[in-house]
User: What shape does this take?
Amino acid sequence: AKAEPLKVIISGAPASGKGTQCELITQKLFIQYGLVHIAAGDLLRAEVAAASENGKLAKEYMEKGELVPDEIVVMMVKERLLQPDSQQRGWLLDGYPRSSSQAAALEDYGIRPDVFILLDVSEDILVERVVGRRLDPLTGKIYHLKYSPPENDEITSRLTQRFDDTEEKVKLRLRTHHQNVDAVLSVYKDITVKVNGNEAKEHVFAQIDAALTHVGEQRKVNSGSV
Ligand code: AP5
Assistant: This one.
């Protein structure tokens, strides 16, 4: 029988490296698993860019570094998780759940990950990562002026910065994170893998890769295929 698709949640403070690690995970694991990357922040930014009603409301909260209300976020993420590609290939959920009510909503829908990866990064490093982050609007790739500089001048000239990526706003985002993180962790404590996210991105990825390989092997043992 075909194995159930893998389901992964990746969490961590603002700029802890969730998006960067998701890029590396989907590149490496695409052939093996084909996981669909679902980032709550990216779904919201798409609504903001489309100037939809939800997007206009969401932007008010994002600018204050606060959580966008559940009425918008919960359905948006749930619908994406239930799309055929996510169901068939498995998913890598980034930046959700961020509160006990969002975690409870997933549990109510019977949606539970195989593993919950927590990127642990110290606060001074987070601020530096936010301030230096740039995005390539053409490819969606995440850069950092110091740690992951763009490959050439053409890319450099088109890089953009997120509207909430200032030192002042990241402090607000961090405060929101600290208010909610313990409640979310308590829901997933039996499947949490804490990863030291202070290291270079390749080293962080090596830890995640090892954890996902371990989960994959355990699933094979549990399903009786080895
Ligand atoms: P969201 O977009 O999810 O932002 P976030 O959680 O603040 O996380 P980031 O995207 O800023 O960072 P990241 O961890 O992906 O780091 P990255 O890999 O880019 O959310 C934005 C807003 O949307 C929220 O404030 C909220 O308002 C709203 N929202 C989102 N989800 C919500 C939800 N569930 N409910 C309600 N509201 C929600 O890395 C950062 C930088 O560091 C990059 O420049 C990168 O190149 C660099 N870097 C990464 N790893 C390393 C490394 N190991 N070493 C050196 N540099 C590194």
The chain has a mean pLDDT of 93.
